[in-house]
Amino acid sequence: MISVGKLARTGFWILLIGYFLLPMLAMARFAFQTIPTFLLTTENVFQGWGFGSLTVAFQDAGVIKSTILSLQLCATTIALTFFVLVPLTTYVEVSAPKLKPWLTGATVATWLVPPVALVVGVAATFRQVIPSFLTSPFTLTFFYSLWMLPFTYRAIDGQLRLIGAKNLFEAAQSVGCGPITFFFKVILPNLKSSLYISASLIFAAVLGEFTFASLLLKQTMPVYLWSFQSSQARAGFALALLVMVATALILGFAVARMRKRGLNFSATGI
Amino acid sequence: MTDVQFKNITKHYGAEVALSNFSLSINSGELVSILGPSGCGKTTALRILAGFIQPTGGALLVGGQEILDLPAAKRGYGMVFQSYSLFPNMTTSENIEFPLKLRKIDAAARAKRVNELLDLINMAEHAQKFPHQLSGGQQQRIALARAVALEPPILLLDEPLSALDATVRDQLRDEIRSLQKRLGITTVFVTHDQQEAMAISDRVAVMRSGQVEQLGSPRELYQNPKNSFVAGFVGISNQIKSTKIGDAWKVLGSSVSGPAGFNTGVAFIRPEDIKITPSPTGIAVIEEISFLGSFVRVFMSVDGNRVIADLQISEAEKLNTGQQVELTIRDANPLIESI
C-alpha cells in the first residue's frame, strides 16, 4: 500500500517536472539547439547544442547596456532598502512597538496599488513638482524599494523578533551601550542572514521586473529583451534562461554559504 | 554608599495602576528580593530602577542622589534577564568583554578581567563558544559575568532562574549569592518563587497590587507574617477557623493569645507548628501520610477542612491513615484575622 507521504512526494515531483522543468527544457532547446523549431523531436534531444545564440546576444550593445543598468538598479535598490528599512524596523521593534501594526500595514499597502496606478500617480505628481525625477532610470530604485517592501520588511522584522532585539537593547543599555553602538555592534551582525536573503530577493526581482520599467520607458534588461526577442528570438530566450539560472544559482549559493556559517534563516522563511 | 530608596513611586499605564506609592529602602551591599505574584508590579519596580521605564510620580534615590533623569545606559547598573539576553553574534569572552570595550579599557586589562570572570563562573573552557552552543545555565552564568564585569554599584536580577531546570536553578542561585557577597554589590532580585527569595535574600519585600505588603528577613516573614496574604504567599499555612473564649483564642486543641475586637477568626498555622497526638476521641482523621525525605507530611481532615502537619520522622512512626488524632499547636502567638 502506498503511503500518503510517498503519494505527496510523487505528486510534488510530477508537478515540478510538468510545470517547471519541462517548459525550461523546451525553452533551452529552442534557445541552444541549432535545429529548426519544427524539426525538434524527442529523437534529437541531445543533438546540435551550442552557445551561438548567447554569443549573438552579448554582441548586441543594447543587451550589455540594459544588463548593466539592471545590475546598477539591483545595487541601488538594495542600498536604499537597507538604508531606510533596517534602522526604521529596528527602531519600531525596540523603541516604538505601538507603531508596528502601522509599519506592517504600510509595507503591504504598496501591493494594494497596481504598478500601473502607482506609476501614473507618481508620474502625475512629480512631473509637476520635480520634472527631473522621472527622467533618470534610477527613479526605478524608489519603485522597486516600495515594491519589495512586503518581502524585505518581513525578513528583517522576523529576524529582529527571533534574536529578541528589544531584550538585547535593554541588556546593551545596562552595560552602558548607546543606541548607535547597539545598532552597529549588535543589530547589524545579527541581521546578516535576513539581509543576505533580502538582497538576494531584490536581486532576483529587479533583474526580472518589467512593468514599472516599461511604463516609465526605461530600458532595463527585461524591457530590452522584450524588443530584442522580436528580432533575435533564440538569443533573447538564451539570455532570459541564463538570467533565470544565474539568479537561482546566486540565491542558492547565498543560502548554502550562510547555512555553512551557521546563520539562522528560519525567520526569513527559507 | 549605594543604598537605594524608592519613595512613593507610582506608575500608571492608562487606567491600570502598576505601582501605587511604592516605597522600599535597600541598604548598601544588601540583597533584597522583591517577591510577589504575577502582575503585582515587581518587575515594573526593577525596570524603573534600571531606567527602562519612567514612573508617573515619586522619587528614586541611589546613594542619596535622584537618578530618575539619568538614562539607563548612564546608570551603570549590571542587569541579568530571565531570557539571558546574550549577544548572539559574540562568543562567551566577547560578551563579557563588551562592556569593558565600551568603557575603552585597554586590551591587556580587558583580557585579564575577562579571564578572571571566566574563572569565577567556571566557564573558561567555553570562552570561544557562541550562546547557541551553550545550555541555559551556562548562558545565565555568562550574563551574570557580563553584568558584573564593570563592578557596578547595583546588580539587578529579573527572574534570572525562572527559565532553568530545578537542579541548575538551585546551583546557580547559590552561585549568585556567593558572588554577590564576595563583590559586596547592592542587589535587587525579582522573583515569584518564594523558596528562591527565602534562600538567597538578606531581606524580602512581599508585594501585592503595586505596594509592599511586608519587608523583612526571610525568617521574620515566615514566622511573623503581617497578614493573610503574606502568610499564604510565603510558605504553607493552614487556615483554621478559631473562636475567642474569654481572653484567649481556641485554635484546634490549644488556647493561645490573639487580637481583640472580634470573636471569630481564621488562624494561620504553619504545618510544622501542628502537634499530633493519637486519640480515639480526637477531632482530626489522618487521610494521607507522605514521606518527604527529611520530614513526613500528614494530611488530615478536621470538620471537612484539610489540615497539613509536617513532623519529624520519629514523630510520625506511630501514625496510620484513618487514625483519629488530637491536634494542638506549638505557636503561642499565631496570626489571627477576622472572618
Task: Give your account of this protein's structure.
The complex is a heterodimer of chains A (270) and B (339). Chain A has 270 residues and is mainly alpha-helical. Chain A folds into two domains: 1-50, no CATH class; 52-268, MetI-like fold. Chain A is 76% helix and 0% strand. In chain A, helix 1 packs across helix 12, helix 3 (61-94) packs antiparallel against helix 11 and helix 11 runs antiparallel to helix 12. The model of chain A has no long low-confidence stretch (mean pLDDT 88). A six-stranded mixed sheet of chain B has the order 6-7-8-3-9-10, sandwiched between helices. Chain B has a five-stranded antiparallel sheet with strand order 13-12-11-14-20. In chain B, 42% of the residues are buried. The mean pLDDT of chain B is 92. By secondary structure, chain B is of the alpha+beta class. The longest helix of chain B is centred in the middle third of the chain and has 18 residues, at 166-183. Chain B has two domains: 4-232, Rossmann fold (3-Layer(aba) Sandwich), CATH 3.40.50.300; 238-338, Beta Barrel (OB fold (Dihydrolipoamide Acetyltransferase, E2P)). At the A-B interface, helix 7 and helix 8 of A face helix 2, helix 3 and helix 5 of B.
